[in-house]
Amino acid sequence: MLAIDLTGKRALVAGIADDAGYGFAIAKALAEAGAGVVVGTWPPALNIFETLIRRGKIDESRKLARGGMLEFEKIYPLDAAYDTLADCPEEIRTSKRYNERGDFSIQGLADAMRRDFGDKPLDIVVHSLANGPEVKKPLLETSRNGYLTAIGVSAYSLVSMLQRLAPLMRPGGSAVSLTYLASERAVPGYGGGMSSAKAALESDTRTLAFEAGRKYGIRVNTISAGPLASRAASAIGFIEEMVDFWATWCAPCRISMPRGQKLWAEYEPRGMELYSVDTDDASPGREAEIRAFLQENGLRFPVAIDDGTASAAFSVSRLPTMMLLDRTGQIIWIHVGALTQSEEHALRATLDRAL
Ligand SMILES: NC(=O)c1ccc[n+]([C@@H]2O[C@H](COP(=O)([O-])OP(=O)(O)OC[C@H]3O[C@@H](n4cnc5c(N)ncnc54)[C@H](O)[C@@H]3O)[C@@H](O)[C@H]2O)c1
């Protein structure tokens, strides 16, 4: 249980379709604190999400520390690109994943919540969604359409959600969205107008906090989240490097390194680079010892010889230390000690999502 008590409060988390993203983690933390949680899920992902839940595939992640499981009071279809159903083009409305979902617009969500829970059913709104169809394209190559879609879905959707959901919120309530560093710094790979969308989201948050604060007595904030290998981030091709710090004298390294080699062979073709970093003390025979160690253990990957700079940069204090870095150099997964089978599973799951 979190130190805050949200018993009797209800949260809407918009943007959950599996257990790998921020939305799920936030929903779980809110439930741990005692809040009821309803979810808004993008219709193209809704079927899969319902199946994951029905088949128990995310039961492990749904377990709450306080006992019991994370249960959603309702899962609503939500396409945050549309304010009302009339805004949605006919060919989408009648397509397979949408046609049996009723009103999946933002207005539809507000109406459904009022129907299901009454006039003032909400305390917390979490906007945990984004979409930029051209996110892999540099801004310089982004089309007007791609750019406007990124802004529409990832930034304007918050404005629209507050227009329609703030009237359902009880005074003292709070809305929060998730932004990203690329709003204020150039992050290569975060293209398609997504950096612009996050800048708009941050600017809108200030204005909405002022306006909705006065009009509805609610707070509006955005959190700049660190990198996480969610489904959305994985679509960007976001993991760049696996870095493994080791030394010839280190027994747990001997256990881990063949596993590391297997992973490298498997994931390198999918775009993962391995930096295997030897941290042995400087000595005249060091290179020969490393070569012998690699040969003895059947290891074939290239090795970088650290003069202490790399281990210091990553504050490596125990060996082996293995980490995954995203393209901005931030650590998104780290393991210290021998890479056991269960750790290998966790690492594979992260790589599979991200590559
Ligand atoms: N993962 C990261 O590294 C990272 C870093 C900083 C900020 N964020 C932000 O966190 C938020 C959640 O993303 P995540 O990385 O956890 O990924 P995620 O894939 O778990 O969440 C994104 C969700 O948006 C939904 N979505 C896409 N288009 C939609 C639409 N038109 N209408 C409704 N829903 C739609 C997707 O179905 C998905 O469930 C996003 O705003 C993202 O930009 C993520």
Major sheet size, sense and barrel closure = 6 strands, parallel
Number of strands: 11
* Average pLDDT over all residues: 93
Radius of gyration over all CA atoms, rounded: 23 Å
What is the CATH C-level name of the largest domain? Alpha Beta
CATH superfamily of the largest domain: NAD(P)-binding Rossmann-like Domain
Strands ordered across the widest β-sheet: 3-2-1-4-5-6
The total tally of domains equals: 2
What do you see in this structure?
The protein has helices spanning about 20-30, 45-55, 60, 90-95, 105-115, 145-165, 195-215, 230-235, 250-265, 285-295, 310-315, 340-355; strands at about 10-15, 35-40, 75, 120-125, 170-180, 220-225, 240-245, 275-280, 305, 320-325, 330-335. It is an alpha/beta fold and about 350 residues long. The strands form 2 sheets. A 6-stranded parallel β-sheet has the order 3-2-1-4-5-6, sandwiched between helices. β1 (about 10-15), α1 (about 20-30) and β2 (about 35-40) form a beta-alpha-beta unit. The radius of gyration is 23 Å and the shape is elongated. Bound molecules: nicotinamide-adenine-dinucleotide. Nicotinamide-adenine-dinucleotide binds near residues 80, 129, 130, 225 and 233.
